[in-house]
Amino acid sequence: MLKEERQQLILQILNDEHKVIASDLSKRLAVSEDTIRRDLKELDSLGLIKRVHSGALRKGPPVVDFSTRQTISNETKMALANKALEFIKDEMVVLIDGGTTNLHLAQQLPLSLKATVITNCPHIAISLNNHKDVEVIMLGGTLFKESMVNLGIDTVEALNTMRADLYIMGIYKIDAQIGISVPSLSEALVKRKMVNISTEILAMVTSDKINTVSNHIVCPTNQLTYLVTEQLNPDIKAMYANQGIQVIDE
């Protein structure tokens, strides 16, 4: 088998199974582990996969700015938001951070809702302008324009005085073993604080983010209470459900 054919097969396996182990690939493709490691290193250098210890993960969707993400997969994001609405009840304190799927959720909240919403995302705060019975608490900080959220020490210090019933966490990358991760250290620190002050945590995740990884870990995946996503392969769904997470994928 030519190298190009082998690497295409690795990409196909990775796309189907979301994760590959070098020793397993070595047996399946009948080549040495050193050959597989060289393949994975080359594919990683091309930006096609994410190398991790002993193997590789899918790269997942590229990190792009907020305005660009607002044009991607809107129908799917709206469907996920509709599923998540049932978890938001009157009199709750709901913490919502950045993300275009989270913005869809905020835009679909019923006008009759009586709740408190804490957010570090200006777009989400503005979207709740007409909800007369929703108190909106806008967290300050330094605006991180790529994600359109406020970050920094001011954001963390404000969160020290708060508690939330439900945290709607925007997800960049999520892997059942490695955890929830983002490309920015500052955003990871703020999200980690949000996790620590929340009773329950809900994440809405499009399937292309499942079993992918970025540079800075926010928290283990088992910190999630609810995972709202597209229909998953039963084996992949079990990886999350076995951690005590309620997976809503239908």
UniProtKB/TrEMBL annotation:
Pfam families membership: DeoRC, HTH_DeoR
InterPro entries given in the database record: Carb_Metab_HTH_regulators, DeoR-like_C, DeoR_HTH, NagB/RpiA_transferase-like, Tscrpt_reg_HTH_DeoR_CS, WH-like_DNA-bd_sf, WH_DNA-bd_sf
GO molecular function, a single term: DNA binding
PROSITE patterns attached to this UniProt entry: HTH_DEOR_1, HTH_DEOR_2
UniProt superkingdom: Bacteria
SUPFAM superfamilies given in the database record: NagB/RpiA/CoA transferase-like, Winged helix' DNA-binding domain
Key words, A-Z: DNA-binding, Repressor, Transcription, Transcription regulation
Segments forming domain HTH deoR-type: 3-58
Xref: PANTHER family: GLYCEROL-3-PHOSPHATE REGULON REPRESSOR (PTHR30363:SF4), HTH-TYPE TRANSCRIPTIONAL REGULATOR SRLR-RELATED (PTHR30363)
Protein task: Repressor of the lactose catabolism operon. Galactose-6-phosphate is the inducer.
Annotated protein name in UniProt: Lactose phosphotransferase system repressor
Source species: Brevibacillus fulvus
